[in-house]
Amino acid sequence: MLASFAGAAAFAQTLGSAPMRERWSAQEAANIAAMRLSQQGPRPVDASNRHELRADAAALGRALFHDTRLSGNGQVACASCHSADRQFQDGRPLGQGIGTGSRRTMPVMGAAHAPFLFWDGRKDSAWSQALGPLEDGAEHGANRMQLARRIAVHYRDRYEAVFGMLPDLSGLPEHASPLGTPAERTAWAQIPEARRDAVNRVFANIGKSIAAFERGIAYGASRFDRYAEAVATGDRRGQEVFSPQEARGLRVFLTTGQCATCHNGPLLTDHAFHNTGVPPADASRPDRGRADGVRKLLQDEFNCLGRYSDAKHGQCGELQFIAAGDPGQLAAFRTPSLRNVAERAPYMHAGQLATLQQVVAHYARSPRAVLGHSELAQPGEGHGDRQPIHMSAADMQDLVAFLGTLTGPIDQSR
Amino acid sequence: MRTCFPLVQPSVPTELDAAAAAESRGQFHTAFRHLERAHVLAQPSTREHVRVHWRMLHFALRGRRSGDAFGQAWRLVAALCLTWLGLVPPGNTGGSRVNGFRPMPVPPELQTALDCTSGAERNPLRVQAFRRRVAMVAIGVLAATGMLVLGGCGSPPRDLDMSLEKPSAAGRYRIALVPPVPAVAVNRMHSWQVRLASTDGQLVSGARFAVDGGMPQHGHGLPTQPRVTRESVPGTYSLDGMKFSMPGWWQLRFAIDGATGGDTVSFNILIGDPGARP
Fold first, then answer.
1. Does B35 lie in the same domain as B141?
2. Do A251 and A393 lie in a common domain?
3. Do both A173 and A63 map to the same domain?
4. Nearest C-alpha of chain A: how many angstroms from B63?
5. Contact B159/B36 with Cβ under 8 angstroms?
6. Distance (Å) from the C-alpha of residue B166 to the closest C-alpha of chain A?
7. If we measure between CA atoms, which residue out of B39, B126, B51 comes closest to residue B85?
8. A143 and A168 belong to one structural domain
9. Per the domain annotation, does A22 fall within a domain?
10. What is the spatial distance between Cα A109 and Cα A117, in angstroms, rounded to a whole number?
11. Which pick of A25, A112, A192, B269 has the fewest CB atoms within 10 Å?
12. What CATH code is carried by the domain that includes residue A123?
């Protein structure tokens, strides 16, 4: 009788992966296999940027990315916060440019796969994203008039080789922008519409060349990918790239920790927005996250449907069908990729949590949201059909160990 | 006085045959429904009870659902050891996604069949209550352990209505949801079709729809706001901007505003879930 039970059980397990060191159900094995980096496919082409695949645009973008002259004080470049030797981010709780920003700097990798950029998704393309910090008073602190002039002075030939003739800027003010200081806005309003459009086009093209450069920056395969490949192909020896603790952590990730609820797929993100009750950096002024991001995106002249986008109307599905009125978006933030996460402390949208241990402890606690409603079920109470997260102290250690296996190189080959 | 018609009454063999036939046509849900009915009928007999769990085990193995197969494996052993004592939960449908120790209501036609076959013989289901209680406590502990192990992200409820064509909530319309071909890929936009008809089968033109949905077990909504953008042919509407940001159980709800008034309908959709999608 017991023999028959053991036999049946063993037979059942052959379906998952019987002789394997760790046994995964068919469902778990499928989820693990779907998280392999190889499953993400080629980087999608951004229809709104027709220069994205051009090598000369990328070379120009690389120069602009590192050029501190594209800032109000001549000291801030994209690379100042998105540093190649720091995972293309800055390791600070809040971005530090000319001033201190209000959110954590996000890495450049993975941007080509994301339908929305920034923690609140207020941009819908990599090129449009690159424009934001340039004019942000806490970051580059520049303005589009000044930036167009810098291009004309320092990059005229390279710019014109990609985008065609620069417009004539003579007679225009030194500084002007619809988003800048009151003086800059006044100056901008006094420029004739056609010339404002010409300046906007140069500004947009700065973003498009930076995006062409950033497209070549991607996550490389990690130890997790080798383990996942072993699970997918039934390779027992291949499973040994994980310690037993890391494999236990992966199980927590997929099951009781509920991490894979949002962190799934090859980049370990669903590219969506969620409120998980992360305590705001300043409880008196909690960040409204996606709720404001949607509003800003719809008003943005550099979005996919705007006049500076190269996309046809039907290629802007994400914008046309954006979830605008969902109350769940209040204080919701973009699910970040977990690739290389262990190299990227501190965590959350304002760097509120210093270590992965604190992040895991946050989810184990699942506190109520200060603003909006957390999707997580609070311990001991029903929350629709969602179950509360259950993790023991040992589970949490295992999970942190597993997260360390997601670290891989950064691939900059084109 | 009960009247028994053994030839037309459901029996374990007829249900097992029906299950095999349905499975061969690819109707996996129907097939499993027959296996469940066979299970209810098989409970009085050790031989039949084991046989049904054996078939359920194979059904799970063919579907490559090792979790279900495991659930069937222990049920098979339990059926082998405990049926003769009558230690079975009456009416339990026997699948690995229902509590294996919970008595369940027996459908009337199956109850009739059970009554007819057992007749006035000793009913093996009637045993001393205390023995059953002891067994139930022991088994309950086992079950709780099992659920702790299997719990987590939550698998969709077993009895989820997966039909993509159904009457609306108040019965004003019949509505069908047509998924795109090829199948839905996670995090890609696609276009579905909605077909709307009145209860007598007449296609309904000029209706308006409001769409929402989400993941009931995750507490979040849809990643996009899908819309019915046009009526491509009378009664058939394009539902655009559909996107699912992860595999699993999603709900899609419609508010319909048509010629015969307002109504609502809700569909369950399982995305990219090899364990749950036939």
1. yes
2. yes
3. yes
4. 10
5. no
6. 23
7. B126
8. yes
9. yes
10. 11
11. A192
12. 1.10.760.10
Locate the chain A residue with the closest alpha carbon to B67.
Answer: A25
CB B82 within 8 Å of CB B88: yes
Q: Pick the residue of B62, B97, B239, B245 with the most A CBs within 10 A to test the interface with A by mutation.
A: B245
| A339 and A395 co-located in one domain | yes
Residue A137: other Cβ atoms inside 10 A: 16
In a domain, residue A304? The reply is no
Of A25, A323, A376, the CB nearest to B66: A25
Residue A54, pLDDT above cutoff 50: yes
Q: In chain B, which residue ranges form alpha helices assigned H by DSSP?
A: 12-24, 28-42, 46-62, 66-82, 108-118, 129-150
Reported confidence tier of residue A325, pLDDT bands at 50, 70, 90? confident
**Six-digit token pair at A204?**
């947009």
Range of the domain at A208: 55-218
* Total domains, chain A: 2
CA distance B147 to chain A (A): 11
Compute and round to an integer the Cα radius of gyration of chain A: 24
Res A323: pLDDT? 92
Alpha-carbon separation of residue B188 from A310, A374, B166, B240 (angstroms): 20, 26, 26, 12
Q: Is residue A62 located within the same domain as residue A190?
A: yes
B243 in A contact zone (CB under 8 Å) = yes
* Average pLDDT of the residues of chain A: 93
Looking at per-residue pLDDT, the higher value among A385 and A136 belongs to: A136
Q: Which of B77, B226, B240 sits opposite A1 (nearest CB)?
A: B77
CA distance B120 to chain A (A): 32
Phi and psi at residue B210, to the nearest 5°: -115, 135
- Establish if A197 touches chain B: CB-CB under 8 angstroms: no
Regarding whether B81 and B182 lie in a shared domain, the answer is no
pLDDT computed for residue B142 by the predictor: 52
The reported pLDDT for the residue numbered A204 is: 98
The whole-angstrom separation of Cα A376 and Cα A369 is 9
- Quick check: A111 and A129 in contact, CB under 8 A? yes
- Note whether ipTM > 0.90 here: no
Task: Tell me B95's DSSP state.
Answer: -
Chain A residues 362-401 with a CB less than 8 Å from chain B: 375-377, 383-387, 390
